[in-house]
Design goal:
This protein is mainly α. The protein has a domain of 118 residues: Chorismate Mutase Domain, subunit A. It is built from 7 helices and no strands. The protein is elongated and about 70 Å long. About 8% of the residues have low confidence. The site of ligand ISJ has 12 residues, from α5, α6 and α7. One of its GO terms (molecular function) is chorismate mutase activity. InterPro entries: Chorismate_II_sf, Chorismate_mutase-related, CM_bact, CM_dom_sf, CM_II_prokaryot. Pfam families: CM_2.
Length: 170
């Protein structure tokens, strides 16, 4: 059984510095709790807005709307393909990190490796900039997957290195 306390590995973000600031340390780019809270309050606002269902009927009497509907439908097919690919990639990522969790539990390593995380933060920021992606999105993605992966490492360690406790380990 692991005696690792979650406060040792679920490190709170240390710094509210703008994630886009050039030259900031990796630790400065970590999302802080306030940024996460702000992002979720914005999504609550969006949630509260009205929703529209786009369908052929709405476009029936207006060729401009009909054209917009056609383009939205084509873009949605691309969006659906991307979402499917992302889920496949996440499945593979969590299988790999679960396998790392088994090795760490066997070797007596803690779930977190902050040196590795700092490398990942800096790398993903560079990739996001090159790709034209908001660097906050890259950091939100990283924060999500790494936090989930460490939770699973802890579960594996608590189960004596048994990955059977996870539903994602193939
Ligand atoms: C998977 C690992 O464990 C943790 C999870 C990481 C991840 O999900 O990429 C990265 C570093 C660690 O804090 C690892 O050490 O490689």
């Amino acid at each position: 059984m692991s005696d690792i306390d979650s406060s040792d590995w679920l490190r709170p973000a240390e710094n509210p510095t703008d994630a886009n600031a050039a030259g900031a340390d990796a630790a400065d780019r970590r999302l802080d709790a306030a940024a996460i809270a702000q992002a979720s309050s914005v999504s609550d606002e969006i949630e509260a807005e009205k929703s529209s269902t786009i369908d052929e009927e709405a476009a029936a009497n207006n060729p401009e709307v009909a054209e917009a509907v056609k383009r939205i439908e084509a873009l949605r097919q691309t969006i659906d393909n991307i979402d499917g690919a992302v889920i496949h990639l996440l499945a593979e990522r969590f299988k790999a990190t679960a396998a790392v969790g088994v090795l760490k539990a066997g070797a007596g390593f803690a779930p977190a490796d902050y040196k590795r995380e700092d490398y990942q933060i800096a790398r993903l920021q560079r990739i996001a900039i090159d790709a034209g992606l908001d660097t906050n999105i890259a950091e939100m993605y990283r924060e999500f997957v790494v936090t989930e992966s460490k939770k699973r490492h802890k579960r594996i360690a608590d189960a004596g290195g048994d990955p059977g406790v996870l539903d994602v380990f193939a």
